[in-house]
Design a protein that fits this description.
The protein has helices at about 10-25, 65-70, 85-90, 95-115, 150-170, 190-200, 220-230, 250-260, 285-290, 300-310, 315-320, 325-335, and strands at about 1-5, 30-35, 55, 75-80, 120-125, 170-175, 180, 205, 215-220, 240, 245-250, 265-270. With about 325 residues, the chain is an alpha/beta fold. The protein has a single domain (about 1-185, about 215-245, about 285-295, about 325-335), classed as 3-Layer(aba) Sandwich (Rossmann fold), CATH 3.40.50.720. It has a seven-stranded parallel β-sheet with strand order 3-2-1-4-5-6-10, with helices on both faces. The protein is globular, with a radius of gyration of 19 Å. The model has no long low-confidence stretch (mean pLDDT about 95). The structure holds nicotinamide-adenine-dinucleotide and thymidine-5'-diphosphate (TYD). Thymidine-5'-diphosphate binds near residues 87, 189, 193, 212 and 249.
């Protein structure tokens, strides 16, 4: 099976590539990534030598270059991980989110159609459903109600996928996963930011009252869900993915500090994110029932392993945290 994986130098895409090359010897793949601030080929070290792997630096929103990638490649499927993904950046600069997440997805859909690619998997997010009160969980029929420019751009892409299924008969599925954690996550997202700041004895910026809730899943469990959706998902369907693992941000940050043996005095409450979604929770019963998916990681050990990974890969995150990210950090937090 010959796959086009977009965004494979990012957090989830790189984990997916490691996972697939390890677990599925029948798969070969082309990784297309624009290497934006968070795309990092170091996430794929070791993989470059695999003859089943090829990297192409390209922007999914550049139709001409993407047409060259598709021409003559005969892909069996496209898996679209490429996106601008950080809610806070979408608040300060939404344009690039529309370009990559919406126009980029539409260009991939068009090319998949033109070149007769038999399957398309759109990797989406639970954030398209908006925010939940204290109870309940998102199902696949929860109305879309995105609240940030990021989630609005992802919801738009999901709707384009739906339109291509209905209008052109395209064979596509959408996965909507909750928050991921694990190795190679860019340290602007909650868990790696808190781990790396704590390791540097820097303040841990918690937004608002810290009582927002997120539903955390290990990235490898997400990767297995994407693979199952590719293999067994029903054309036109949406699959929610989540491990029923809800945490208040503050409780999670305290847990990380406890694992690291660092003091809670590092916690600094900062101004809340505008339009901050209060709670996400996923009902994943459909993918469990219909595709036989189960999360394999237990959160306590997955979190410890992740902390250990950041301790052992200090060179990786220190390099990532220098340069452009430094400028963003100062503008975002003034810390
Ligand atoms: P990431 O920000 O770590 O990686 C995104 C990758 O896409 C980077 O390698 C970047 O260089 C690449 N990219 C960005 N713009 C591009 C463009 N125009 N052309 C080609 N490549 C481009 O993101 P992630 O956390 O790995 O997320 C991957 C996907 O999973 C996204 O679609 C995201 O919406 C979705 N998702 C993420 C989470 C999460 O918790 N991180 C949860 C659910 C869904
Ligand atoms: P994040 O990792 O940005 O994921 P998302 O907003 O897409 O769910 O944030 C997870 C939660 O952590 C969210 O409620 C915002 C909060 N948060 C902070 O409190 N401080 C921070 O510095 C960051 C980045 C996030």
């Amino acid at each position: 099976m010959n796959l086009l994986v977009t965004g494979g130098a990012g957090f989830i895409g790189s984990n997916f590539i490691h996972y697939i090359l390890r677990e599925h010897p029948e798969v070969s793949l082309v990784n297309v990534d624009a290497l934006t601030y968070c795309g990092n080929l170091e996430n794929l070290s070791g993989v470059e030598k695999d003859p089943r792997y090829r990297f192409v630096k390209a922007d999914i929103a550049d139709a001409g270059t993407m047409a060259e990638v598709f021409a003559g490649a005969s892909f069996d499927a496209v898996l679209n991980f490429a996106a601008e993904t950080h809610v806070d950046r979408s608040i300060t600069g939404p344009s690039v989110f529309l370009r990559t997440n919406v126009a980029g997805t539409q260009i991939l859909l068009d090319l998949a159609l033109k070149y007769g690619v038999p399957r398309f998997v759109q990797v989406s997010t639970d954030e398209v459903y908006g925010s939940l009160p204290e109870t309940g969980a998102f199902t696949e029929t929860t109305p879309l109600a995105p609240n940030s420019p990021y989630s609005a751009s992802k919801a738009s892409a999901d709707l384009l996928v739906r339109a291509y299924v209905h209008t052109y008969g395209m064979d596509a599925v959408v996965t909507r996963c909750s928050n991921n954690y694990g190795p190679w996550q860019f340290p602007e997202k909650l868990i790696p930011l808190m781990i790396t700041n704590a390791l540097e004895d820097k303040p841990l910026p918690v937004y608002g009252d810290g009582l927002n809730v997120r539903d955390w899943l290990h990235v490898e469990d997400h990767c297995r869900a994407v693979w199952l959706a590719l293999e067994k998902g029903v054309k036109g369907e949406v699959y929610n993915v989540g491990g029923a693992n809800e945490w208040h941000n503050l409780a999670l940050v305290k847990e990380l500090l406890a694992i690291l043996g660092k003091p809670e005095s590092l916690i600094t409450f900062v101004k809340d994110r505008p339009g901050h979604d209060r709670r996400y929770a996923i009902d994943a019963s459909r993918i469990r029932r219909e595709l036989g998916w189960r999360p394999t990681y237990d959160f306590a050990s997955g979190l410890r392993q992740t902390v250990q990974w950041y301790i052992e890969n200090e060179t990786w995150w220190r390099r990532v945290k220098s340069g452009e990210y430094q400028k963003y950090y100062q503008t975002q937090y003034g810390l």
